[in-house]
Design brief:
The structure holds 2 protein chains of 2 kinds.
Chain A lengths: L4 E3 L2 E4 L5 E6 L6 E7 L6 E7 L2 E5 L6 E5 L5 E5 L8 E8 L7 E2 L3 E5 L1
Parallel strand pairs in A: 2-11
Antiparallel strand pairs in A: 1-3, 3-8, 4-5, 4-9, 5-6, 7-8, 9-10, 9-11
Chain B lengths: L3 E3 L4 E4 L4 E7 L4 E9 L6 E6 L3 E5 L2 E6 L4 E6 L8 E9 L6 E2 L3 E6 L1
Parallel strand pairs in B: 2-11
Antiparallel strand pairs in B: 1-3, 3-8, 4-5, 4-9, 6-7, 7-8, 9-10, 9-11
The chains are: A mainly beta, B mainly beta.
Chain lengths: 112, 111
């Protein structure tokens, strides 16, 4: 059984740039949720994808967008990067939108 | 008022002792409750989940839920230095796709 993987591991961008983060869900899982975790804070829910459709969104602006592919892997896109976007971005996969979800190792994004 | 509150710690216990981690939540509609462990620089790892009032035991871990008082706790028996980590409480409402996390409690188990 393959676990959740994310790429890249680390990323450095400058303000105003755009970034794409990738996530491959655990084998057999059809739901991917994305979270932002700032230093010293708990993860904050960005959005969830289930069977290629957005299935709920947290309190994040539209410049955070995503998609899910037929193989249930997912991308998170962030446009017009701001300094406050610097964080650990986590994806978590689960089966059929349950919250027994398993996290990937995360992507550390630094915006300068 | 924060939706999910945890004492940030650090909570320090000697090896072999019981560590008690607490979490309160504000939304009475909350249905599902989760405990995650997060080692420094790593991603959260699911330890336990609980849906019903009462206790749920899994090895050295016991989750306790009291919906009337809106708190959930995690007990770690026979604490080991390898249990030193940040413990995150997460709460979800039925029909809501937003999993809400507390800021975590940092636990240190001293040999």
């Amino acid at each position: 059984e393959t676990g959740v993987t994310q790429s890249p591991t680390h990323l450095i961008k400058t303000r105003g740039q755009q970034v794409t983060l990738r996530c491959s869900s655990q084998s057999g899982h059809n739901t991917v949720s994305w979270y932002q975790q700032a230093l010293g804070q708990g993860p904050q829910f960005i959005f969830q994808y289930y069977r290629e459709e957005e299935n709920g969104r947290g309190n994040f602006p539209p410049r955070f967008s995503g998609l899910q592919f037929p193989n249930y892997s997912s991308e998170l896109n962030v446009n017009a990067l701001e300094l406050d976007d610097s964080a650990l971005y986590l994806c978590a996969s689960s089966l059929d939108r349950t919250y027994e979800q398993f996290f990937g190792p995360g992507t550390r994004l630094t915006v300068l | 008022q924060k939706e999910v509150e945890q004492n940030s710690g650090p909570l320090s216990v000697p090896e072999g002792a019981i560590a008690s981690l607490n979490c309160t939540y504000s939304d009475r509609g909350s249905q599902s409750f989760f405990w995650y462990r997060q080692y420094s620089g790593k991603s959260p790892e699911l330890i336990m989940f609980i849906y019903s009032n009462g206790d749920k035991e899994d090895g050295r871990f016991t989750a306790q839920l009291n919906k009337a008082s809106q708190y959930v706790s995690l007990l770690i028996r026979d604490s080991q230095p390898s249990d030193s980590a940040t413990y995150l409480c997460a709460v979800n409402m039925e029909g809501d796709n937003d999993m809400r996390f507390g800021a975590g409690t940092r636990l240190t188990v001293k040999p």
